[in-house]
Amino acid sequence: MVGFGIIGCADIAQKIVRTIAKTEGCSVVAVASRSIEKAEQFCASLDLPATSCTRYGSYADLLGDANVQVVYLPLPTALHLEWAPKVAAAGKHLLLEKPAGLTLQEVQEMVSACAANKVQFMDGVMWMHHVRAPKMREVVQSGELGKVTRVASSFHFCGGEEFDEDNIRVRKDCDPLGCIGDLGWYQIRAIIYLLQELPSSASAYVHKRSREGVPTSCSATLFFDSGKFATFDCGFDTNLRQELAVSGSAGTLACSDFVLCKSVDGSEFSVGSMVFQEGYGPKGHGLESTVEVRQGG
Question: Which residues form the Gfo/Idh/MocA-like oxidoreductase N-terminal domain (predicted)?
Answer without folding.
Answer: 3-122
